[in-house]
Amino acid sequence: MLINIDxxxxxxxxxxxxxxxxxxxxxxxxxxxLENSLSIExxxxxxxxxxxxxxxxxxxxxTGDRLRLRYHAQVVVTRSAAVLEDLAATPLHALxxxxxxxxRPSRYCESDLFADxxxxxxxxxxxxxxxxxxxxxxxxxxxxxxxxxNAATTAVNTFGSRAGVCRxxxxxxxxxxxxxxxxxxxxxxxGADVSPPDFHAVAQVWLExxxxxxxxxxxxxxESLVVIGAGRDAGDVPFMESTRPAHPxxxxxxxxxx
Length: 258
Fold this sequence. Notes:
The protein is α+β, with helices and mostly antiparallel strands. It has helices at residues 97-100, 115-122, 127-141, 155-161, 166-179, and strands at residues 2-12, 17-21, 31-40, 43-49, 56-62, 66-77, 143-144, 163-164, 184-191, 200-207, 210-214, 225-231, 240-242, 247-257. The chain has 2 domains: 2-78 and 239-257, Immunoglobulin-like; 84-236, C8orf32 fold (Roll). The strands form 4 sheets. The chain has a 4-stranded antiparallel beta sheet with strand order 3-6-1-14, with no helix packed on it. It has a 4-stranded antiparallel beta sheet with strand order 4-5-2-13, with no helix packed on it. It has a 4-stranded antiparallel beta sheet with strand order 11-10-9-12, covered by helices on one side.
């Protein structure tokens, strides 16, 4: 599937600043970049590797008090959605070292606090069947509610409030998966079917030697999303970080199937 991405951002800054951006589509398994261009007014750009070596991040050294950027990409997505129930879990001793990291609790995914719950709720299942049940449970139990959470909201908070946005759905899915000994990471993505259009987040779980996308919000599928970056949780892949306050004036994300 061909996916077209166009993003424009205009932010008021507090003067010269160094901004870290994670907005470029990644050259990673399941997707191929045909076009990829980023332009930022009055800025010098420096690229570094993305978290977990997925994609890249861009340091933008901005002169002046405005961040004005345009990003365009055209990506061919070749991955297909797997039937989770058909996939087996990888034995713990066979997990690659870089995957083992995603079994651990993190700032927003307190997986160690969910062990009793997953045992009671999903203990009769294993592997992909357990992962499918986790996705279904989160989709049914958590209400998608913009404004119901903030940058400090964790998976435990979402579990208690039963409300959140894509970030919160993903943190909870990752936490429940890790508590079930299934490696899970947070992926920032562009989704062609996300409404309203914005930066989106999904979980990726490690089953049968590969990462598989899981979106409990139901707003994207593996075939219709483009991965930007991946990490332990949202703290690893924010789309923008600044050293001083930055006030959004406008931000438009347009993603379409080509």
